[in-house]
Amino acid sequence: MLSRKTLVIITIVLVFGIMLISCNRGESSMSVPEGVKVGDIMLEPYEFKTTSGSYNAERGSLIVPENWNKDTSRLIALPIIRIHAITDKSTEPIFYLGGGPGSSNMVFKPSVALLANHDVVMVGYRGADGSVILDCPEVKKAMKGLGKDLLSKESVINLGKAFQKSFERLQAEGVDLDCYTMVDVVQDMEAARKALGYNRINLISESYGTRVAQIYAYQHPDTIFRSAMIGVNPPGCFVWEPEIIDHQLEYYAQLWAKDPECIIRTPNLAQSIRNVAHNMPSHWLFFPINPGKVKAVTFGMLSGRNSAAMVFDAYIAAEQGDASGLALMSLAYNLVSPSSAIWGDFCTKAVSADFDPNRDYFTEMEPPGSILGAPSSKLSWGCAQYSQLLIKSIPEEFRKVQDCDVETLLVSGSVDFATPAENATNQLLPHLTKGKQVILAEMGHCGDLWNVQPEAFERLLTSFYDTGVADDSLFTYAPMEFSVTWGFPRIIKIALILILLIVLGVIWLVRFIIRRIQRHKVRQTT
């Protein structure tokens, strides 16, 4: 019998994006009650449950205009949750800004440490939560790709057409797509702050949410007390650049070369990845291998240290002639990626902030000689390049970094492919007069930062919010572990054996039933 740990590993690996799917589902659609006005908030008591216990909370809805700049705009409703601090002497509340874009903002489970001295507030993201959710079934279908390569020009153009068709439908339904940007989200948060009666607030943001936090600080510096950004994404960095991805893979290769057991498998990890990425087999047994889908899954899994090790294991096996892991990754893409985001929300927020019409994303994201290229950028930004989406850009001042005096903590992982630490170091930190960055060695994106050493991470956050000093003294070096017990090649082979056994069992059962029926008929005739 497989151990509990093994089962957990298998589950995580097989559906590496299932956690994203659960986080990306928008909060159930709600309606706008009659007679309400902008800024109205309706709350009712309820019990907020986490693994650490149950807490007094309130939940309900906040009423905001779809268009903040239009007095006659229709109203929309956003979900809101406030979890009350454990102590009666709480200080500034913490507003949560989750990742995405294209994800719900109602999924945070604050720890006891954060709730000790602070209320925690979640306000739904417009377009992903509430009465208007920018769902795009046309895009989900197109995300599966055309032909044998997800990243072919034909496939990327088709995805762009799907976005265009989705947006035309949403506009026909009365949705003003120019009103679903990060700037609008900040105004929603401010409306919630005022409705709840808070003078100043703290922010805790992750990934995409750190971009919202930056705009919030630029617009309302006197409103924000302290801001902790986890997995920091400066302006322009919704576009993953191939040069940075190559640099990160080379860094991983350096870590790999320090392990004597690893270099037995391959002396140069980066070169092995390049060899496979540029010479992907078309199939394994009767399973097709779509190179674009494999590369997209590869990039997604590189954001976490455990899933990254699974990717490396599959690529090295493929270089040595066993492409079974790549076949499973290709299959996993169709199960996970098309439903991994609320695509209309993803597009309006990302394109309005970072799209540059002067770039040839389709070509630039896969330069000759690159180890992997930037597959997710080629797909998402390439389709924006070839589509005719008329999404209005947010004001130029919010498309670039500004100087900021808000007390800010930047937390990054040194092997984070989604939000590389060097982006925050080079682009954002120099503009923060009261900023500090903590880079955690050999940790990836937000999941690693929260979970690899949770007690140390809680101390880091709570000390910053309570004293302004980010205490990282509890962290210890956690070296990268490249060994894999249940890699993709092993999983797909075991799955095939189990399927074969089931099929043989069904055949035996059918034959057994037929024989019993035949014997019964013989007995009746004698």
Q: Distance N terminus to C terminus?
A: 48 Å
**Beta-strand fraction estimate:** 5-15%
Q: Could you give the order of strands across the largest sheet? A: 1-2-3-5-4-8-9-12-13
Q: Number of helical runs? A: 20
Give the uncertain stretches in residue-range form: 1-23
The coarse overall form would be globular
What is the average per-residue confidence, as pLDDT, rounded to a whole number?
93
Structural class, by secondary structure, is: alpha/beta
Largest sheet: 9 strands, mixed
Total beta strand runs:
13
User: What does the radius of gyration come to?
Assistant: 25 Å
Secondary structure: helix percent: 40-55%
Description:
- This protein starts with a helix and ends with a helix.
- A hairpin with a 2-residue loop joins strand 10 and strand 11 (about 285-290).
- The chain has about 525 residues and is α/β, with parallel strands linked by helices.
- The longest helix has about 40 residues, at about 490-525.
- About 45% of the residues lie in helices and about 15% in strands.
- The chain has a nine-stranded mixed sheet, sandwiched between helices.
- It has 20 helices and 13 strands.
- The protein is globular.
